[in-house]
Structures are given as C-alpha cells and as structure tokens.
Fold this protein.
Amino acid sequence: MSLANGRPYLAIPGPSVVPDRVLAAMHRPSPNIYEGPLHDLTARIAADLKALAGTTAHVAIYIVNGHGAWEAANANLFSRGDRALVLATGRFGVGWAESARRMGVAVEVLDFGRSSPLDLGRVETALRADAGRRIKAVLATHVDTASSVKNDIAGLRAVLDATGHPALLAVDAVASLGCDEMRMDAWGVDLLVAASQKGLMTPPGLGFLWFSDKAKARCQGGDLCTPYWDWAPRAAPQEFWQYFCGTAPTQHLYGVAESLTMLLHEEGLEAAWARHAVLARSVWAAFDAWGAGNPAIALNVADPAFRGHSVTAARLGAPHATALRRWTEHQAGVTLGIGLGMAEPADPAYHGFLRVAHMGHVNAHMTLGALSVMEAGMLALDIPHGAGALAAAARVVAGR
Ligand SMILES: Cc1ncc(COP(=O)(O)O)c(C=O)c1O
C-alpha cells in the first residue's frame, strides 16, 4: 500500500514546480514568428528579465540549459588563452571552471570546499598576486545548488575594487535568481547567468545572460564568439530572429512571460525573496531539531548567512539519506534531491546526503508538508532523530 497517490511534489532543485498557469500559457499552437504579438511579448520579457536581475544594461536569451548558458558566457567573455579565476564552493563552481577550461580558457580555480562560502581574503590575495592584471574575469556561483552555499557577491565586488583589479565579475545565479536577493548593477556584477527551470518556474530550455556596458566593451571580437553564442545581436536585435539567432522558442516564451508576471507584477520580487527566506529558515529549524537528537543529521552549511534560500543540502548519515528519499517518493509522493558532489556515487557515503528544494512556485503548505513526510519516513525507517522539528518549522512559518 502507498500513500503517494495524489498531486506529487517535486522538491528537487530544478526542474522546479511549474505553475498550472505557466503550463496553460505554453499549451497553445505555435504563433506567427514573423510579426504580431510574439514580437511585443518578447520585448516585454526582455524588460522584465532586466528588472528581475536588477540591471538597466543588456540581456540575451538562449535556447539552452544552464550548462549551455555557461558556454554562452565563456564564448562572449573570453578568447582562447585568456585567464579566468574561478571561485568554487560546490559541484557547479567546478563545472563552470571545467566548461571554460575545455573551451581553451586558462582557468585558475580557488576551491573553498563543499560546505564553506568563498573566503574574500584568499580572493584578495589571488588578485594582488596577478601583478600583470592578466585575469580577465572572476567567475563565482551565487548559490551552488550542490552544496547550497551562498556567496557574498557584493563583498566580492568590494574586493575587486579594493585591489583595483580590472577583472570582470561574472556570477552564476542559476539556482538563486527569483529566490535570493540579487542586485546586479548595485553589486557591480558584469555578467549574470541564469536558466528557466528554477526560480523562474518554467520548464528547462531557456538560458539567460545579462551583461554590463563594461563587459560589452571589453568582450568584442573574441575568438570563441561564434555566431550562435554572440550576445550582441540577441541583446539589440535589428530583426526579430536575431533575438534567438533563428526560430524563437515560442511556447517557452509564453511560459516565461507568465512566470515573470507572477513574480514581478503580482507577488513582487522582494516579497518572493522574503517568502523564500522564511521557507528556508523553516527547513533549517527542522534539521536543527532532528540533529539535536542525532549528530549524524546536520545542515551542510554551518553559518545561516551563507545558506541559499532556494535549496538546502544536508547529511543524515549513510545509507539513511537515500533510503529516506526513496521512502518519501514512493510512500508519500514527495521527491527530494540527491546529494550532489558531496561523495562519489560508488562511495557508500554518497547515500548519506540529500537536498530539499524550496525554490520558485513553493508555499508554506508544500514545505511543511515535505518536512512532515520526511519525519514520517524517519519514523518508518527507524532513523534516529530529535523531536520537535515540525513544531520548530511551524513556529518559523508563524513568525514566532
Ligand atoms: C548553480 C547552477 N549552475 C549551473 C547549473 C547547470 O544547469 P543545467 O543542469 O540546466 O545544465 C545548475 C543546475 O542545477 C546549477 O544549479
């Protein structure tokens, strides 16, 4: 007998839950791509995307996933042999470095481990050591979905300014945009990367690059910039097809237009940030209570100031995390995220990590429901845990 029948809840850090009205907006015949409403809609989407990122500069839309958006960023930022300083605080920081390296960029990685934020002092030392100012860009992850580490992007800009280093600041916000506070212009970010399947509540398939005037001026004529990746015509098209370097992703545009309306024009971006902050804290409160009764259960990131608000990585001790994930999915209809980059799949320790997502179209009912199901699973599987976790989470939601 299973209690999973009913509306399933995908509590994984992307693809996130797609609202019914976004699916409905996409469920339509393909429109005329040569003229008409799609052209106005796309211009409106571009304007909303700038508001979402907190910039008045430039935005380019690609038909890609996040890995594709990394390549689009690399292709516009660098020429072969250019130097990049990559700050890794999880699997995705390492992934962006690998993507750039395989495109011929000379990559230096500062690795801060799998459960700590980047250390601004070490970044400062690395920038000061680059006497020839050869580092063209610093690549950082705002929230690394694998570790749920959130980095201080404004602090990073301050270090760049304090050292007088001219490197561009490029930030991966794939996991955080629409969930965690992001102020691209105010924080001095030159390039921002995101994708549609997380905080933007739209199926995977669209990637976005926002770039500053400084980045635009510094990144012209690079030898990696092939026609499809070139951000310039996409950001300032003379003809509609140039937005996408070919046929527009029609149904996805209707979907993302709907999600932007929900996020920016109905709920409001700052309200969405506040909602994610409360839901994240409620998850943390539950794990702290569970951990009080079993030291093997703990949040991956010790300091709340450096935890993302869209996903929570945690350990339960092997093999409990995998057993619990299987139980919640098959017995209760809630799918939790695998542990990513914390241990190799062949390593038994791999089965000690999981992630709980709370990103995009998610409310208190869904989050408290997921936590309740996790507690039920711990009981069913005899996983030792502390008491009072659900009450602690409810108190956070109640603002108590
Ligand atoms: C922070 C971050 N960057 C990049 C990616 C890669 O995106 P995709 O899986 O869509 O290729 C992800 C995916 O989870 C991510 O979380």
Summary: The first strand starts at residue 9 and ends at 11.
